[in-house]
Automatic annotation (TrEMBL), chain B:
Residues 4-234 form the ABC transporter domain. The keyword Nucleotide-binding applies. InterPro entries: AAA+_ATPase (IPR003593), ABC_transporter-like_ATP-bd (IPR003439), ABC_transporter-like_CS (IPR017871), ABC_transpr_MalK-like (IPR015855), ABC_transpr_MalK/UgpC-like (IPR047641), Mo/tungstate-bd_C_term_dom (IPR008995), NA-bd_OB-fold (IPR012340), OB_MalK-like (IPR040582). Pfam families: ABC_tran (PF00005), OB_MalK (PF17912). This is ABC transporter ATP-binding protein. Keywords: ATP-binding, Cell membrane, Membrane, Nucleotide-binding, Translocase, Transport. Residues 364-387 are annotated as: Disordered. The keyword Nucleotide-binding applies. It comes from Pseudonocardia xinjiangensis. GO terms for molecular function: ATP binding. The lineage of its organism: Bacteria, Bacillati, Actinomycetota, Actinomycetes, Pseudonocardiales.
C-alpha cells in the first residue's frame, strides 16, 4: 500500500511574552536615535533658513526702515503693487536673464570642452592641472575684484593695453555687464570643470570601448555616447547657473560697479539688496525676495522635472 | 572568416606584467576559450585583441594582416563585454542597430537586420525597451545581438555568462555553442569557469600569471595537463598532488612517498632518485577492501579520511595521505566516514608526474627514441607551442 509522504512538520513556536514597559521604552529610545543625529542639522536649518523665510514673507506686508526704534506699519499688498509698477524691477529680471545666458558658456560649454580634451591627462599631471583650474574659486571674490579693477582700469589697465582699446569697462553699460559676466565666469569655471571631470569619470570606459568596436569614430563616440551619458551633469550645471548666477556675481557687482552705471549691472539679487540696505525699504526688499524665491522655485522645479526626463542612469 | 595569430604579445602595467609573451594561433572557425583564475591576464589579452589596450610588445595578425596598431573600429571584430556595455540611453533596437548606424548603412538595411537578429535571439518583444528595463539574461542577449548584427570576422566574449544565474548560464552555454556551430565564425571566449571552458571550447588556452600554460582540446588539457597549474586548476575536486621520488626497486621504477608506493614499470635506472610531483585525479583513486590482501606490485596509497562530501550521485572523500590531501571520488555511498583509515589504489597510467621545480609535465620519451628517459615535454598541440 502506498501512503503519501508527510509535508515537513510545522515548527513549534513558543510565544514570546509581551514586552515589559521598560523594554517598550528601550525600543522607543532606539527608534529615536536616528532623529537625534538629524536634530542639530534640522535645528540649524530651521533657525537659519526657514525662520528667515517666514519672516521675509511677514516683512513683505509691512513698511519699515530697518531702525529698531521705528514701528513696522502694516500695509497689506502695497509693497507688491509698488514693485510691479517700478520699471527697474522688470529690467533687473532681463539683466539676470542676460547674466545667466552669458555665464552658460563658462559653466557648461567650456567645461565640457576642457573635460573632454583633458581626459588624456592622467596621474600627477591631472592633479596639478585640476588644482590650477580650480584655483580661481579659492580666491576671495572681493580680492579677485580688486585685481580685476586694476586690470580693467581705462588708462593703465592691462586689458585695454592688450586689446588696444580705450573702453571704460566698468563705467559704460554694455562693457560693465560683460566684465561682470566674464569675471564671474572666470571664478566659477574651475568648479564647473571639476564637476564635468567627475561626471566623465563616472561613465564606464566600456561604453566608449564597445562603441569603438561597433565602428564609431571618436567624434561619434563623443556625440552619441559620452554627451548623452553626461546629460545628468549638464542639467545639474544648468540648474546651478540659473539659480546661482546672480548670487555668484553679487560680491563682484558690489565691489566693482555698485549695480551701475545707471543700473546696468543691477540683477534681481542686487536689486532686492539695494531696496533693503541702500534705500532702507525693508518691506519692498522682502516683497522682491518673496517674488524671486517663488520664481526661482518654479524654474528649479521645471529643471528638475526636465532632468528626470532627459537623464539616463548608467547601471 | 578569420584566423587570429598572436606573436609574443606582452602587456606591462608599470612593474606588473599582465600578459607575458603569449603566442597563439586561433584557426578560422575555432571556439577558443581563454581560461584562468582572476588576474591571470586573460581579459587583458582579449582587450589587446579588440584594440582597447595597446600591447607593450608583440604582434596580432588577423587573416595574416598585422592589426597591432589598427584602431578597434577597423578590426572587423565584435565584442561582448562582461558588463554588456549596453548604451543606457538607447532602446534595444537602437542598441542592436548601433554598429550599422556607426558604419552609415542605409536606414532600411539597419531596420531589417536589427529585426532579423532580434528574431533569431527572441528579442522582438523588447525592441522598444531601454536596457534598465531588461533582466540580466535579456541584457546578455541584446549584447550578443549587437555583436551579431554586423556579421563580424570574429567574436570576442569577455566572461559574458558570469552575471547570469546558474540555470540561465547552462542554457546560454548551449545556445552559444549552437550559435558557433551555425555561424562557423571564430570565437574567443574569456572565462574563469572550467565548466564553461570544457563544454564550449573546441580548444582551451590555460593562462596563469600572464603566461600560457597549455593549449589543447578539453580532453587534452584535462587528461594530460601540461603543468602542475593546469592539473590543479581543472577538475572538481582539483587533482590531488603530492611530492614523491622515483626509485629503482627490484628492476623496475616506482614512485615512493610517505604511505605511497606506485609502480611505473620499465627499467629506467637513470631516473632513480628524481624528485617529482605526483598527481592523481579523484575519480582514478579506487578503494581497496581493508580485508583483501593487496595485489603484489599494485599501486598502494594509505591514508585517513578527513571529510566526506555528498554530491548527490557521488561522494568525495578528502583523505590525508602523508602530508597531502587527496580527494577520492566514487559512487554513493563510499562507505567512509571521517577518521576511517583507507587503502587506495590506482592504475599506474593514470598517474601524472610533474617536475617540482618547473612544474611542467614529465612524459616518457618513446622507446624508439633510444633510452626511455623522463623528459620535460610540452605537448605539441598548437601550431605555435606555448612558451
Amino acid at each position: 500500500m502506498f501512503v503519501e509522504l508527510d509535508a515537513p512538520a510545522p515548527v513549534a513556536v513558543r510565544a514570546v511574552p509581551p514586552p515589559s514597559r521598560s523594554a517598550r521604552l528601550r525600543r522607543a529610545g532606539r527608534s529615536l536615535v536616528p532623529y537625534l543625529y538629524l536634530a542639530p542639522g534640522l535645528v540649524l536649518l530651521g533657525i537659519w533658513v526657514y525662520r528667515p523665510l517666514v519672516q521675509t514673507g511677514q516683512l513683505s506686508f509691512f513698511s519699515w526702515n530697518l531702525l529698531p526704534t521705528t514701528p513696522m506699519v502694516p500695509v497689506g499688498f502695497e509693497n507688491y503693487e509698488r514693485l510691479f509698477t517700478l520699471p527697474e524691477f522688470g529690467t533687473s529680471i532681463w539683466r539676470t536673464v542676460v547674466l545667466v545666458l552669458g555665464l552658460l558658456p563658462f559653466t557648461v560649454v567650456v567645461p565640457v570642452a576642457v573635460g573632454l580634451l583633458a581626459r588624456r591627462v592622467r596621474g600627477r599631471a591631472a592633479v596639478i592641472y585640476q588644482a590650477l583650474v580650480f584655483a580661481p574659486l579659492l580666491i576671495a571674490p572681493v580680492a579677485g575684484a580688486a585685481v580685476w579693477q586694476w586690470l580693467l582700469d581705462p588708462r593703465s589697465g592691462a586689458i585695454n593695453q592688450v586689446l588696444g582699446t580705450t573702453t571704460n569697462w566698468l563705467q559704460e553699460p554694455g562693457p560693465a555687464q560683460l566684465a561682470i559676466i566674464v569675471i564671474t565666469g572666470w571664478h566659477v569655471l574651475g568648479f564647473a570643470v571639476l564637476v564635468v571631470a567627475a561626471g566623465l569619470a563616472g561613465i564606464s570606459d566600456d561604453y566608449a570601448g564597445a562603441a569603438a568596436l561597433d565602428g564609431a569614430t571618436p567624434g561619434q563616440v563623443t556625440r552619441w555616447i559620452t554627451l548623452p551619458l553626461l546629460s545628468p551633469t549638464l542639467v545639474f550645471l544648468v540648474l546651478m547657473t540659473v539659480l546661482l548666477s546672480a548670487q555668484w556675481s553679487f560680491p563682484l557687482i558690489d565691489t566693482l560697479t555698485n549695480g551701475g552705471p545707471a543700473g546696468a549691472t543691477t540683477n534681481v539679487y542686487y536689486l532686492l539688496w539695494d531696496y533693503g540696505f541702500h534705500s532702507f525699504d525693508a518691506g519692498l526688499g522682502a516683497a522682491a525676495g518673496v517674488i524671486f524665491f517663488a520664481g526661482f522655485g518654479v524654474i528649479a522645479a521645471a529643471l528638475v522635472a526636465l532632468s528626470d526626463r532627459v537623464t539616463f542612469h548608467d547601471n | 572568416m578569420s584566423r587570429i595569430q598572436i606573436e609574443g604579445l606582452t602587456r606591462r602595467f608599470g612593474a606588473v606584467t599582465a600578459v607575458d609573451h603569449v603566442d597563439l594561433d586561433v584557426p578560422d572557425g575555432d571556439f577558443l576559450v581563454l581560461l584562468g583564475p582572476s588576474g591571470c591576464g586573460k581579459s587583458t589579452l582579449l582587450r589587446m585583441l579588440a584594440g582597447l589596450t595597446p600591447p607593450s610588445a608583440g604582434r596580432i595578425l588577423l587573416d595574416g594582416r598585422d592589426i597591432t596598431a589598427t584602431p578597434p573600429r577597423d578590426r572587423d571584430l565584435a565584442m561582448v563585454f562582461q558588463s554588456y556595455a549596453l548604451y543606457p540611453h538607447l532602446t534595444v533596437a537602437r542598441n542592436i542597430g548601433f554598429p550599422l548606424r556607426a558604419r552609415r548603412r542605409p536606414r532600411p538595411e539597419v531596420a531589417s537586420r536589427t529585426e532579423t537578429v532580434a528574431r533569431v535571439l527572441g528579442l522582438e518583444e523588447l525592441l522598444h525597451r531601454r536596457p534598465r528595463e531588461l533582466s540580466g539574461g535579456q541584457r546578455q542577449r541584446v549584447a550578443l545581438a549587437r555583436a551579431l548584427v554586423r556579421d563580424p570576422g570574429a567574436f570576442l566574449l569577455d566572461e559574458p555568462l558570469s552575471n547570469l544565474d546558474a540555470t540561465l548560464r547552462t542554457a546560454t552555454r548551449a545556445e552559444l555553442t549552437e550559435l558557433h556551430r551555425r555561424l562557423g565564425s571564430t570565437f574567443v571566449h574569456v572565462t574563469h569557469d572550467q565548466v564553461e571552458a570544457m563544454t564550449m571550447a573546441t580548444r582551451i588556452a590555460v593562462l596563469n600569471a600572464g603566461r600560457l600554460e597549455q593549449v589543447g582540446t578539453a580532453a587534452q588539457v584535462y587528461d594530460e595537463p601540461a603543468s602542475v597549474f593546469v592539473a590543479g586548476f581543472l577538475g572538481s575536486p582539483a587533482m590531488g598532488l603530492l611530492p614523491g621520488r622515483i626509485e629503482h626497486v627490484e628492476g623496475s621504477l616506482r614512485v615512493l612517498a610517505p604511505d605511497v608506493d606506485i609502480p611505473l614499470g620499465g627499467p629506467d635506472p637513470e631516473d632513480a632518485g628524481r624528485e617529482v610531483v605526483l598527481g592523481i585525479r579523484a575519480e582514478h583513486l579506487l578503494l581497496v577492501e581493508p580485508t583483501a590482501a593487496p595485489r603484489p606490485g599494485a599501486a598502494l596509497l594509505r591514508g585517513t579520511v578527513r571529510l566526506v562530501e555528498n554530491l548527490g550521485s557521488e561522494e568525495v572523500a578528502h583523505c590525508l595521505v602523508g602530508d597531502a590531501r587527496l580527494p577520492v571520488r566514487g559512487p554513493r555511498p563510499l562507505g567512509l566516514a571521517a577518521g576511517d583509515p583507507v587503502t587506495l589504489t590506482t592504475a599506474p597510467e593514470r598517474v601524472h608526474l610533474f617536475d617540482p621545480a618547473s612544474g611542467r609535465r614529465l612524459v616518457r620519451r618513446p622507446a624508439s627514441a633510444g633510452t626511455a628517459a623522463v623528459s620535460t615535454h610540452v605537448p605539441d598541440l598548437s601550431a605555435v607551442s606555448p612558451s
